Amino acid sequence: MSVQQTLPPQHQQRQPGLEQAMDPQPVYITADYRSAGKLTGKVAIITGADSGIGRAVAVHYASEGANLVLLYLDEHDDLAVTRREVEDRGVQCLALAGDAADEGYCRKVVEQTLSKWGRIDILVNNAGEQHPQASLEDISEAQWEKTFRTNIFAMFQLTKAVLPHLRRGASIINTTSITAYKGSPGLLDYSSTKGAITSYTRSLAMNLAERGIRVNGVAPGPIWTPLIPSTFTAEEVAEFGANTPMGRPGQPAEVAPAYVYLACQDSSYVSGQVLHINGGSVVNG
Asked: Could you tell me which residues belong to the region Disordered (predicted)?
């Protein structure tokens, strides 16, 4: 393996990607993670919960005692793994496939969540997609709209549906990206949506402060998730994360504890902030 190679070269033709097809398999929780019941009795809704960061957040939340609503598009086999891991930790979950940018689906999610538990305490807006292109001229209007629909329209729709049912002390956590701060020449539409998510997070935090609802974000750097082999070439995957100060990609298990922190009372005085989990890259702003 060369100095620059961090992963075996690989590419998946299907989008969204599948975690079961990745080599090596991502790590979504480590053996030394110590839970403390920080979310006992809470109910959390997580988008993109089938794999990657979403799966890691779900498993960590289950370890902390939260019951979960696992939202995903159509990756049924990956979702089955997440569901098993969650239920093995002694909590309950609902798994609902669909498009979070669809208003009717979001209403269904809220209705079924309230029917089962009567409450919603945490919303994690995590689902996203990206489609690398070399130049702006290569991005079709359809691609631009699709990326915005998945990455930011869905946050609007689901948050709007959930918001009337959140109580004082609830937490909303949005997944943005290092690309919102540093840019990415090959991910123009994706980076733009992540910039929108960062501004949305800050503005919504101020809007909801009087209601006692906290809103924060997490900005991952290069994390080994199905998004990577399904959108980059095998050669690009082989060097994924090599340009970070730590010289490697991160694992979902290294990101998920930030979502635990932002969901629980440990962060009771934190709102409108973004945590940067990126392998040592210094991000200002």
From this structure: 1-23
Sequential DSSP letters for the chain: --SS--S-----SSSS--GGG-SSPPP-S-TT-----TTTT-EEEESSTTSHHHHHHHHHHHHTT-EEEEEESS-HHHHHHHHHHHHTTT--EEEEES-TT-HHHHHHHHHHHHHHHS-EEEEEE--------SSGGG--HHHHHHHHIIIIIHHHHHHHHHGGGEEEEEEEEEE--THHHH--TT-HHHHHHHHHHHHHHHHHHHHHGGGT-EEEEEEE-SB-STHHHHHS-HHHHHTTTTTSTTSSPBPHHHHHHHHHHHHSGGGTT--S-EEEESSS-----
Rounded to the nearest integer, the mean pLDDT of the chain is 96
Domains and CATH numbers, the chain: 37-276 (3.40.50.720)
pTM over 0.85: yes
Question: What pLDDT does 1 receive?
Answer: 42
- pLDDT per residue as tens digits for the range 146-190: 999 999 999 999 999 999 999 999 999 999 999 999 999 999 999
